[in-house]
Every structure is written in C-alpha cells, then in structure tokens.
Q: What sequence folds into this?
DNA sequence: AAGCTTCATGTAATCCTTTTCAGTGGCTTT
DNA sequence: AAAGCCACTGAAAAGGATTACATGAAGCTT
C-alpha cells in the first residue's frame, strides 16, 4: 500500500492541508515546511496524480494526434511538443491515427475522457472537412494540415508556395516535362498538388499528377509505370520523403541517371537527404518552429478562449542538391 | 461543467452504481442497460479517467523511457509499444531522457506519481549499473540495454554476436585493418565494442576503437582525424546509424571510395540504407519483435510478480550491400 | 411451504487530493 | 484599547468514479 498524504501529515504532526500546501506553495511557515519535507523524504511519498487531477479539475495533459510517429516530420514534431509540454509541467498523450477515421474518432473520445487541456492535431482529410460541425470540449490547434481559417487555430507550411518554388527551380535548370507524385491520403498532398498546378500553369508547362498510397513501394511502382511510356518526364516533384525514396529506387532499377535524365525534388530535409544518390533537393520544413508555434497558439487560446482563430503559415527553405544540378551537357562535374 | 455519472443516472432513473456497471460490464438487465445507454448518448457523457484510475487503483498506464524518440530504433519501438498498449486498453507515457541522468531521475519520479502499471526502459549507462539497488514500485522491463540477468526482465539484441558477424563479414571480403567507431553514451555501444574486440582477436586482426558523442557530426570529425594518419584502415564498423552517416560524409569529403578503399558496415536497417552511397551493409534489428516481447514480458511479470527475471536475446540479421561488396581489383562493377 | 441461492439493484464508503471555510494569534491602525 | 488586518493552520467538503455490502425478488430444493 503506497504512502499517502495522510501518512506524511501524521508523521510530520500537521494536517493534510498543510502537506498539500507544501506542494502547491501555499502559505506555510518555515518550520512546518521543513518538518513536512523531512516526512516526505522519510516516507518516500509521491503525490497521486490521478487524485490531484480529479480534485483540481485540471489534467495538465495535452493530446497529440498525428498520422504516424514514424514519419520524420511527426517524429520531430512530437519531440518538440513533448519538450515544450514537460517544460511547463504538462504531459502529452500521443496517438497514431494511420490516417484512419475510426482510429481518429476513438482517440478523440479518449482525449475527452482524459479531459485534456488541449489537442494538437494533424487531422485526416475527412475530419478536416467535418471540423466545423462537431465541437470538442477542449481547444484544438491544427498542425501540418489546416483548411481555411475556421474555428480552430492552425499552423502549417505554405505548401502552395513551397511546391511552386520546386517547380520554378526545376524550370530554371531547364526542365519542362515535370510530373508530380502525391500521396493520396493527407490534405497536405492536395495543397501541394495545387501549388504544382498553378506553378506549371503560370510557366506554361504541361502538368501531370499521380496519386498513390503514402509508401515508398507504391511510389516506386507508379514511377516504373510512368517511365514505361515513351514520353518520359525530365523532372519529378514528390510530395513527401517516402515518395522521394520510391522515386530514387525506381531510377536505380531503370538505370536512369539523376539529374542528367531526370531531376528530382521533394519535401523534408533529413540527415540522409544529402547522401542518397547525388543528394536530394528538398524543401526543408521548420518543424521545430511549427511545433513551438502550435504550443504557443494553444497556450494563448487557453488564456483567451474567445479570441478569433489564428492561422500561422510558415515558409519552407529550398535546399538545392545534386538531384537538381544543372546539366552542362558535356561533362558531369561533381556538384558542391 | 461536464456531465458526470450522476447526471446520467438521474436521467436514466437508476443509481450511479448501475451506470458504472454498464461500463464495467457488471450484471445489468437488458432494459436498464438500454435506458442507461440512451442517457449516455443523450448527455454525451464521457467517464472521467482520473476518477476511475483513482478509485480503481489501476492506472492502466505504462511508461516508455528512451534516449530519444528521433533515433529510428526508438521511433519504431514506441510505435509498436503504443499499438500493443492501446490494444489492451493501456496508455503510454513517453519520455526522452537524452541519456541524461537528471532527466531520467525526474521522469522516474513522474512514473511513480502516475502510478504506472509498468515501465519499459532503455536506461542510461549509469542507471543500468545502479539498477540493482534502488527498487521501484512497479515492474520494469529493460530494452535495448540490459546488463547481466539481474532483478529485471530485459530484451536486447545479441550485440556481441551481431558485431562479431560484421567483423567476420569484413574479414571475409579481405579486410584486415578494421577500426570500430562507437557511441560514448549508451551501454549498447559497450557491448558492441566487446563483440568487436573478441572477433578481431579471434581472427588475429589488429583492433582500434574510437568513442565519440552519438551524432553524425562527431563521427565525421573523428573519422576525418583517423584518415589523416598514414596507416589508413580498410574497413570501419559503426555502432549506430548516426555514426554510419558521419562516416559516409567523411568518405565523401575525403573522396575515398567505398567499398574499394574502405568497406563500411553498421547497425539498423532503414528505408534509405540501401540508397546511401553504394548501399549500406547493416545489421537489421528485429525492432517489432523486441517491442512486442517487451510487452509480453511486462504482462507476464504483472501476472507473476515473483517469477525469476528473464533475459531475452534476439539476433540481428546481416544485410549485405554495396558498402562491403568484394572488390574485384580490376573493374568496378555496379553492385545491385 | 419454509429455507436457500441467485441475480439485479441501490446505498454508502472509499480512493487521495485540493480547496473552502473558519478560526487563532499577533500586529498595526486610529 | 478596540478594531481591523495578515499570515498560518486545521477540519471538512468536494471532485467523479468503483466497489463492498445490504436488500428484495425470483426460482429451486426438499
């Protein structure tokens, strides 16, 4: 049987209220405080967080719902969010939805039962559309995906502009038949698709987009199919890391040279991005900033529940590497 | 004010005990059950988990303490653990220690306050040594790192054997001056170092080990230093993914060819391992099995607290790729 | 038909804190 | 010197569920 606040009080010869006040920095005289602290040390007492949460009606918990923690963007995001949360005495409940609406609904219910203080959420496409209707008993900050400014705060990458800058970059190195490969699950891919469309249009380029399941294998298969046709593209833009890997695999398989025959570019800068093939050109997302901003929005919201919703859009950084190096036409010079 | 079990009881015209029994599948007649369920739906009632945990004296929570969720092994592990946990109605509290003893101690205290049912833990080196002494009020299963069979269950890779197999593999392709690069923080690196030592010794090879901070940059710096000496090694074994990346970077920087001049091998198979340079030879860890086994050990322990501690050792799988392809000596053939 | 189970239900205690409320004693104010 | 204030402290209520125990009705046994 674990020791409770009662045992501590008994041992210190004070009331339980006083012991509680020692933890909550209420007014306690120095002598009593010392006696209590001695008793705590002697008994090895640890306050029961469930009881504390129940009575104080404050869970000190925030939820974090993402598609899959294994996707590097979310890995990094979760790390930032947890650090920020623990720093301000909060705990995080992490959930992986796998872009599955049922799991998402289940976890939302869990969040309610946990009485979370707030939720940081990368919703599935369906939920994003339905978000205006169902209202949740806690504030929500959308990350990574967010529609028009609605009832909820959100912080996202400027996907439209980012993808457009990839297209312009490929165009600037002389590519004209640029196809796009997008995931078919997340709303991010949709935004990136739109950016791709408007950029190709404004440059007067043809456009062709493919949508596949978000896995390297699916991407590889699709690209193999695309390159079995006579009119091969000379540039590919991928809406994610996994797509990018699938593309590189397909290029290897077909023995197509990068960037000579096809230039490749995509999203998310990773430790290994510069080491895959000739180095991958990518848009780097400010994940740390996104996570911290999400926490800021959440805390602000808690302070001012009625304030109008804010949508924060951060811009990515284009990192140019070998996969989009300009081709001299005569000699393959090492880039960098 | 959120609706409580009382409101539901009132609305359904039953006692709170009956409502509680509907949730806990106690004995409730069909009619009452239906009335209660209607009342739940009508009120949108959600049980308060804090209250439930407090009264039932069961947190339904397990802790997961790892060095850093961003390290791919732990990312995958956390995913497996969370899935298994949620499947059996448990929740997970994730903590990143950053190999820092203070953070670790702080989080251990948190685990006690949360009254976790059990803890899955990749302890820092210091904690691993001190583990026999301090005893915790909940069962612990060590993962990734585990000393001799002590008081705690553990599940680890057979690091000794795995590293030895890397050495033997390099030897089999004709390498004789094989150095080892190890992280200086985790106990895993120590085990791998020992495997390296005994394998080189048994093969009659020279050995030289370097220990650096667990980052690609530190690894790169160290390797640059090593290769500034006249007697360059012809093989390198790295104790982790990050080390491996640092080595590849150094090789690029120095324009040293892999595997011709130096063969490279390390740990953890990732999506991109086959795409970095000529493809990286690695030991693949059965992360999923490790995670599931850890959960199994934990649940078994809960059923039989007094049973003797078990140490489960799983073996890795050697995946040979271009970075350790045998060199023909005449022509550089592309390795598949 | 009396007595014994069994099943469904309600009442009240309990889990462990925080928080409200009501002092108590000592100081300052007027 | 009475009044008011302040800083501490303790007793008790409250938070929202589960569960031990009591009760009453129904079904069985003999």
A:
């Amino acid at each position: 049987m674990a020791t409770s606040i009662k045992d501590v009080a008994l041992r210190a010869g004070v009331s339980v209220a006083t012991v509680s006040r020692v933890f909550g920095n209420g007014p306690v005289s120095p002598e009593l405080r010392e006696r209590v602290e001695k008793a705590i040390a002697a008994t090895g007492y640890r306050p029961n967080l469930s009881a504390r949460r129940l009575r104080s009606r404050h869970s000190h918990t925030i939820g974090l719902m993402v598609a899959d923690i294994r996707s590097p963007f979310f890995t990094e995001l979760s790390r930032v969010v947890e650090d920020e949360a623990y720093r301000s005495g909060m705990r995080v409940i992490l959930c992986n939805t796998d872009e599955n609406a049922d799991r998402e609904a289940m976890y939302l219910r869990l969040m309610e039962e946990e009485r979370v203080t707030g939720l940081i959420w990368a919703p599935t496409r369906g939920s994003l559309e339905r978000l205006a209707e169902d209202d949740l008993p806690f504030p929500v900050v959308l990350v990574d995906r967010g529609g028009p400014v609605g009832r909820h705060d959100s912080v996202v990458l400027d996907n439209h502009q980012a993808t457009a800058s990839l297209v312009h970059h490929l165009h600037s190195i002389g590519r004209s038949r640029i196809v796009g490969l997008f995931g078919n699950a997340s709303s991010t891919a949709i935004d990136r698709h739109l950016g791709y469309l408007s950029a190709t249009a404004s440059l007067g380029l043809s456009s062709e987009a493919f949508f596949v399941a978000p896995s390297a294998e699916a991407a590889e298969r699709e690209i193999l199919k695309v390159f079995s046709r006579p009119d091969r593209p000379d540039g590919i833009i991928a809406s994610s890391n996994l797509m990018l890997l699938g593309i590189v695999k397909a290029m290897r398989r077909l023995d197509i040279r990068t960037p000579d025959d096809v230039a490749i570019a995509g999203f998310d800068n990773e430790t290994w991005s510069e080491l895959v093939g000739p180095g991958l050109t990518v848009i780097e997302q400010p994940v740390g900033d996104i996570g911290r901003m999400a926490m800021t929005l959440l805390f602000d919201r808690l302070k001012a529940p009625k304030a109008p919703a804010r949508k924060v859009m951060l811009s990515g950084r284009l990192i140019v590497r070998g996969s989009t190096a300009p081709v001299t036409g005569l000699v393959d010079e090492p880039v960098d």
Remarks:
- The interface with chain A takes residues 2, 46-51, 53-54, 59, 68-70, 75-76, 78-79, 82-83, 91-96, 109-110, 112-115, 137, 216, 242, 245, 248-249, 252, 270-272, 274-277 of chain B (CB under 8 Å).
- The first strand of chain B starts at residue 61 and ends at 66.
- The longest helix of chain B spans residues 287-303.
